[in-house]
Design a protein that fits this description.
mainly alpha, 67% helix, 245 residues, globular
């Protein structure tokens, strides 16, 4: 019974993630969703900046702190191991939902690409970024990343085993293609507003900082294997020419 409840909890957390992920595309791209990054009427600029920075900060703190191994060791004293990843995913998406709901519009124009070819290229890059994010999760293990594998193994009564270190396809050229996809999606727009620029700058800075913490954890977990990988493969864009054997 406990295994079944844990499995259902994981399924619910995953559904919340997937809906939130789809909403993120509409939110950033001003597509379909009832409230997007530029929808609404502008209020006082300083107030909007403060609120938006706080919302981004809530997400950044939750997403980074709960991802650290030390926090996981403490957290799993209270939350079953099989539910740890699903809980992390669920709370991450709660932070994103708060951001969607309370984001303050700042619609001053930074740039606007009127040329149809340029606009089309930027829109294509926007979609390419999101596709890259989703595909990259499946290259490593989508279901482990979002907690489904953990709760499924618990349902079967089997012990969880780490998927270990691997570098398939895109990971042979970029260490963090998921983050590369996010950066592309956040910056590629034919109409960059003040609020969108704040979002893109803040999230990019967060990604660069968070990756330093993640890489420290990966070095601790995989030692020389990850050290060699980091030496041979670029972090976000394939600048390096050294080929991984």
């Amino acid at each position: 019974m406990t295994g079944l409840l844990t499995f259902l909890y994981g399924i619910i957390s995953y559904v919340v993630f997937f809906v939130t992920f789809l909403y993120a595309i509409g939110f950033v791209g001003n597509l379909v969703v009832p409230k997007s990054i530029d929808s609404g009427v502008d209020g006082p600029l300083l107030t909007a900046v403060i609120i938006n920075v706080i919302l981004l900060g809530v997400f950044a703190v939750q997403h980074s702190v709960m991802a650290r191994p030390a926090f996981k060791r403490w957290w799993t004293q209270f939350v079953p191991q099989a539910m740890e990843r699903s809980t992390y995913v669920l709370l991450t998406n709660v932070a994103l939902i708060l951001l969607y709901c309370f984001w303050q519009p700042m619609t001053g124009t930074i740039w606007y690409v009127e040329n149809s070819v340029g606009s089309l290229l930027l829109s294509a890059l926007f979609w390419l970024g999101w596709v890259l994010v989703l595909l990259s999760t499946f290259m490593i293990n989508h279901f482990d990343l979002f907690g489904l594998r953990q709760v499924y193994l618990r349902l079967k009564g089997e012990e969880y085993t780490s998927i270990g270190f691997k570098a398939p396809w895109l990971y042979r050229h970029i260490r963090h293609p998921i983050m590369t996809g996010f950066i592309i999606a956040f910056w590629a727009t034919p109409h960059m507003t003040t609020g969108h620029l704040l979002f893109a700058v803040a999230t990019t800075l967060y990604i660069l900082i968070a990756l330093q913490l993640e890489e420290r954890d990966l070095l601790h977990a995989f030692g020389d294997t990850y050290k060699d990988y980091r030496r041979q493969v670029s972090m976000l864009f394939p600048w390096k020419t050294t080929k991984r054997e």
